[in-house]
Amino acid sequence: MDPPSFDLVPRPRYLDLEVPTMERDVVVLGGTPGAVRAAAACARRGRRVTWILPDAAPEGPSDLPEGRGSLEVAQPPGALAEAVLGPLVPLPDPSRRALAVAGRIHPLPIRPRGLSSILGPSATRAAAWGLARVRTREAVGGLVGAWSEIRSYRDWVSRRYGEPLANALYGPYCRRRWGDPGEVGAAVARLHHAMPAVHDRVAPAEGPAARAAHALAAVEAAGGRVIAGVSVQRFVVREGRVATILLARRRRIRVEGEVLVAHPPAEVAGWLGEAIPDPIHAHAGRLSFRHALEVLLPADDADLPDEIHLVGPGGPFFRITLPGRCPGHTDLAGHVLLHATLDPDDPLWRAPDADIEDAARAALAEFPGIPIRCGDAHIRRLEEDQPCWTLGSAPSWLRVRAAFASLGVVGVGRSGTFGHLDPLGEVRFLEALLADVPLREAHRLHVDPPFDAPRRPGELPGFVYR
């Protein structure tokens, strides 16, 4: 068989190598929540796991909920999800969400007749004309076969809801959460704004710390081992596969099966070194991430919606959630959690905790309906947590993923898969890999599905669903 090609344009036979075998022995690298789930899933399915943690323990000291704390289920979660995530508790109707604009909180979904209270009379007239033009274009396009390419987030929103709404609501939100609307790929809009089917919601009954402890116990019970407090230095490749992992302190681990990595592609490419050619290193370097910042503050949350998405005021923060309403975090009742994603060079990312707390309190002060109380703030920093799906990221990611897979390296978690996954989505992806589903198909089904949904007549969307 010819060796795999690493040309800038991958050949079909090269992509055909994307079939992870998932043998009994598996090495998992990382201490993030994605690595915890990967180690637990493999151990629960009988794999013997060697789990290498860069720190003394997984997850870190924080026990805040992941993301907004709730998960959408279109079908029963399944035994593996229950084993990895712990007991999943049904949640009430997911309609308690809101959009905060100009210091006021507006319940979602947004209906056209309610736009005036959000945008004001003149902006509402412009938005109505924009929607009318969109619907006219859709009707005429269906008759004459009109077509236009939709590549960016701005393209997708403008095509569905008109330029005025794209400028007034969607654009500022996108810029705060994902980046420049003209550079962010349309897949982000489809994934987060498209009208979903009616899904139930569940939440883990335990926090991240309990799940990490269960994962450690599962690995040891399956005959695996945990190596904590050491960092990866380099991968050694022999006969076209990663054969050895060199660690700090002159330690080395022999690799018999797959290597599951919960690290960004550029970091993994650095470990592979000369085992992959320069073009693949260049592609990996283009796969950028944003850091996540979460701030927990004491506040009176009795009358607030479960989620408040911020457009306009709010500083760098794009969302406020109520962690105390999550079953595994009832001890956090009387607190609000502010979420931000920051570019690596954003000064706030490196700012002292006191400055971050001041920014969070200033954001809440713009909303009189959220009474802030005295008390300590809790701050969590998550490095490289938000994959940046830009117009040029998909081709680079396909090449990098194929190169890694051909050497027996498979990405897991949000950073490793370069995907916007929630915990349940990660488990479904792992379940597919453990069932020997080809890697390309597992990604297509669970990481970046090519879906869209029609707009419901007479109603704007719930603005954001994920």
Notes on the structure:
This protein has 17 helices and 18 strands. It has 466 residues and is an alpha/beta fold. The strands form 4 sheets. The protein has a 7-stranded mixed sheet, sandwiched between helices. It is globular.
Labels describing this entry:
single chain; 466 residues; alpha/beta; 7-stranded mixed β-sheet; 5-stranded parallel β-sheet; 17 helices; disordered N terminus
Write a compact overview of the structure shown.
With 466 residues, this protein is an alpha/beta fold. The protein is built from 17 helices and 18 strands. The two termini are 44 Å apart.
Tell me the structural class: alpha/beta
Strand sequence of the main sheet, in spatial order?
Answer: 6-5-14-15-16-13-17
Look at the structure and give the mean pLDDT. Answer: 85
Number of strands: 18
What's the number of helices?
17
β-strand percent reads: 15-25%
- Biggest sheet descriptor: 7 strands, mixed
Q: How far is the N terminus from the C terminus? A: 44 Å
Whole-number radius of gyration?
A: 23 Å
Specify the overall morphology: globular
Proportion in helices: 25-40%
List the helices and strands and how they pair.
Layout: H1 12-15, E1 25-29, H2 33-44, E2 48-52, E3 71-73, H3 79-85, E4 88-90, E5 97-101, E6 104-107, H4 115-119, H5 121-144, H6 153-161, H7 163-177, H8 186-193, E7 200-204, H9 208-221, E8 225-227, E9 232-238, E10 241-247, E11 251-254, E12 258-261, H10 265-272, H11 278-285, E13 289-298, E14 307-311, E15 317-321, E16 335-342, H12 347-350, H13 353-365, E17 378-387, H14 393-406, E18 409-411, H15 413-417, H16 423-434, H17 439-446
